[in-house]
Task: structure prediction
Amino acid sequence: MGRLKRSPIWDDPRVKPPFGAAQINWGHPLAGNNLVHCFLLNEAAGAIHDIAGSRRRVTATMNGPTWVETRGGRGLNFVRASSQWVDLGPMPATGPYTDDVTVVVRFVPTNTALTNISTMLGTGTSDNFSKEFTLWTGNTPNTAEFRWGDIDAVTGIETLTTLTAGVQYDVAGWRQGSPSDWRRRIYLNGRQDNASTIATNISQGGSLALGRDGAGGARYFDGQIIFAIVYDRALSDIEIHSLYVEPYAFLQPVIRRRYFVPVVAGQRSQVILVTAGV
Result:
């Protein structure tokens, strides 16, 4: 038998179950240790679940994006010209976002997303002010960027690696430090791509959104978003790489099989869904 490897369940055209909200294994190190938001867009079409919601509940309101199949699973397709986005509700006025944070998004950009500023996951209160964090593409063409603070006055940290339209990426924004003394990094596909320091502090409030700035009503995304995860701590290099290799590892084992199935190299194996206990 050939070598077994993991593959997204959506690779098999026979498997199109209507997934419900996944269940987190809070005993897993990548879940029980400061996971505050987790949007897995492999979920059922027509609904978005913050599956960390028992701890940080938000209400998601769809504003136009459509469900599509991607090589990484089901995701949401955003069309910039149509101003499509998802309202994930208000951010807390106080809470865990004023210091260390890690924000991870899996996405597939279009050409437009790489030549215009296009927000994947953002917070904010106005057109030019990102509060706790923002991940976007295209501020410098063909790059991803992590930032916070006044967009007109503060420079974010960009990937050094050039991005290509139509290719799936995992990008992670990382922040650690103390007031006026912050270290920041940006990771691409599980590996650190750039690092720097900055003195700009973080304010709180506003709202959280997929596909545009939080409450800014601008910088709409163009492309697909497959998942978005937020931690209120700075993950280690190993943890960030683990999320890239197996992003659903912290789900309950039975649920996890809904996202990945074993595929024998060179041939497709039989797909068996085990749902007992879900």
Q: What stands out?
A: The helical segments are 29-32, 111-115, 237-245, 253-256. Residues 1-19, 54-58, 261-278 have pLDDT under 50 and may be disordered. DSSP finds four helices and 17 strands in the chain. The first helix runs from residue 29 to 32.
